[in-house]
Specification:
This protein is α+β, with helices and mostly antiparallel strands. The protein is built from 13 helices and 26 strands. Strands 1, 2, 3, 4, 5, 6, 7, 9, 10, 11, 12, 13, 14 and 15 form a 14-stranded mixed beta sheet that branches. The chain has a five-stranded mixed beta sheet with strand order 21-19-22-24-23, covered by helices on one side. A three-stranded mixed beta sheet has the order 8-16-17. A hairpin with a 5-residue loop joins strand 25 and strand 26. Helix 9 packs antiparallel against helix 10 and helix 11 runs antiparallel to helix 12. The longest helix has 27 residues. About 4% of the residues have low confidence.
Length: 563
């Protein structure tokens, strides 16, 4: 028997043996059916919750138990660990957008599918709704093999979600490319799930992984912050969130509301109506007794401050962020809003917590706030605020340059004044960014009426004393302004049935009569769109007088500038 014929016979015998034993052929045959759940999860730690999770620390695995296939839920990404570069914009504590997703089974595989929420038909006609859904593409975000299943009344499939957790769902590589840092991609061998950081609760499941990105490493921003710029290791957090229960009433967006908007195209609208439907993002805030004014609420809005925030910054941020309390009280709510320190041991990435993150970066950089919104209704699920830690140091340097305390007899007093100005700026900043997380946009015209709104960009109100020296003790206002009271009332106030539209229109008319205009980013930032009342860093009703006053302050500071 020649070697070739012998090899062929051995292959045939091996194939027949595989068929007789029920094993899957090496290629071209059917996949081996999944094991039962008990077998698939043997040796793991079971964590029950919204999704059951099976942690396997020894093998570095995370298995997910899925009972309700085809039932939608929200997926939100975030970054527990950041890059540390303001210019790239991948900060610690950063939240991504929410996605409406569901698991679907395809034979022995499980697909994670994102619904297309941009286009819909809010119609009682199921065929009409389906026709719109079928007209626009959905997205399969991930697919994995089913490792185990349980049939019967408690049907469940189990899948290893490690490959899902180590997929760049947050868009880290895309952001690096947009910041012109080169093409980065995940190195699977240097990425791993974090079973110890997996948690599951009745309404949310929290999953995490370490992702290592390999790339050229030859651009400045990554070289500034990374020990090895061609190897960037960060963490990605995924939150699976149960859809909010019924009962939330969306509020239609109005361009003069001073708010953000969340929208979609509704193809069931009447022929003469616009397809573009927009809601005003807002938290679910309900009184226990609608007739009480002000009245207590079923569930207050609570923001939590990062425990890594040091003093005296911590106290300043808590004070400033809590300024919004008065606006909610004026809108008819009692104990409806508060800000406090994150409880010890709580995970700031847990979707249940609205977080104010104290973010460190290599350079001074942006602060920002954003609401995480249910794309179906505009309901805010979580508020996410990021405050850059270098900014307060920059403000102290500006104050020191104005006061020049170094060679003066009262140097200590002036240095303290500089720090107090910077802390006053932090209070205003905390209120400003939390305002964004509450769903509110900038209003750069509010400063025409003094401390009209924390949603304006405040130029410090610098004064000259009788001797012509600079004074900073009243550089920033305290508390929210009349425009901010309007914002909260327009977003959250409750009205008698059938009177909401008229009541909101009256709020808008009243704030306009009080002298407030609304000029936000689209009519302020671009030179071609500039609007006289939309100056970003102005103060006072008369721009030219403000400019003259500012030049007098600068002349005084230059005349007293220390060596």
């Amino acid at each position: 028997m020649t070697p070739t014929i012998r090899a062929i016979l051995l292959c045939v015998l091996a194939f027949e043996s595989a068929l007789a034993s029920g094993a899957a052929p090496a290629a071209g045959g059917e996949a081996k059916p999944p094991a039962d759940v008990a077998t698939a999860t043997r040796g793991t730690e079971h964590v029950a919750g919204f999704f059951d999770v099976y942690r396997d620390a020894a093998k570095g695995r995370v298995l997910l138990g899925v009972r309700e296939i085809g039932k939608p839920f929200l997926l939100v990404t975030s970054l527990p660990w950041g890059l540390g570069s303001n210019d790239v914009g991948l900060d610690r504590g950063q939240s991504g957008e929410s996605h409406l997703v569901e698991f679907r089974r395809a034979g022995s595989r499980l697909l994670l599918v994102e619904d297309n929420t941009k286009f819909r038909a809010d119609s009682s006609n199921a065929d009409e709704a389906r026709s719109v859904r079928e007209a626009f593409a959905e997205s399969v975000l991930w697919a994995g093999d089913i490792a185990g299943e349980r049939k019967g009344s408690e049907e469940e499939v189990v899948v290893d979600v490690g490959p899902l957790l180590t997929t760049d769902l947050h868009g880290i590589a895309r952001r690096l490319a947009e910041a012109k840092q080169g093409k980065y991609e995940i190195d699977e061998k240097r990425s791993a799930v974090a079973p110890e950081d997996v948690k599951s609760f009745p309404d949310n499941t929290e999953l995490e992984a370490m992702l290592t990105f390999k790339g050229p490493g030859d651009q400045q921003f990554v070289k500034d912050v990374a020990m090895e710029p061609d190897s960037l290791t960060m963490r990605q957090h995924l939150s699976f969130v149960r859809l909010p229960p019924p009962g939330f009433a969306p509020r239609l967006y109005h361009p003069a509301s001073g708010a953000f908007s969340a929208g979609f195209y509704d193809y069931s609208r009447p022929l003469a109506s616009s397809l573009d439907v927009r809601y005003q993002p807002r938290f679910r805030l309900e009184k226990t007794d609608r007739s009480a004014a002000p009245g207590p609420v079923k569930k207050p809005i609570v923001f939590y401050l990062d425990r890594g925030t040091p003093e005296p910054v911590r106290s300043a941020l808590l004070e400033g962020a809590n300024w919004w309390k008065t606006a909610f009280e004026k809108a008819g709510f009692k104990d409806a809003y508060r800000v406090e320190l994150l409880p010890e041991g709580a995970d700031p990435m847990d979707i249940r917590y609205s977080i104010i993150t104290w973010a460190h970066r290599y350079t001074r950089g942006w602060s920002y706030g954003q609401p995480i919104v249910d794309p179906r209704t505009g309901e805010i699920i979580k508020g996410s605020v990021t405050l850059g830690s270098q900014r307060v140091r920059q403000d102290i340097l500006i104050a020191e340059a104005l006061l020049a305390p170094y060679d003066k007899s009262n140097a200590g007093e002036l240095a303290s004044e500089a720090q107090q100005m910077a802390l006053a700026r932090l209070r205003q900043l905390a209120a400003h960014e939390v305002g964004h997380a509450l769903g509110f946009a900038h209003n750069f015209a509010a400063s025409r009426l003094g401390n009209g709104s924390v949603m304006d960009y405040p130029h410090p109100l610098i004064e000259l004393d009788a001797s012509g020296a600079v004074r900073l003790d009243h550089a920033y206002g305290v508390g929210v302004g009349p425009w901010d009271d309007f914002l909260v009332a327009h977003a959250y106030a409750e009205f008698p049935a059938g009177e909401e539209a008229a009541s909101l229109a009256k709020l808008r008319a009243d704030i306009a009569k009080a002298g407030f205009r609304y000029v936000s980013d689209p009519d302020s930032r671009a030179p071609g769109d500039a609007e006289p009342d939309g100056l970003l860093w102005d103060f006072g009703p008369d721009t030219l007088k403000s400019f003259d006053a500012l030049l007098a302050v600068r002349r005084s500071a230059l005349d007293r500038f220390s060596i």
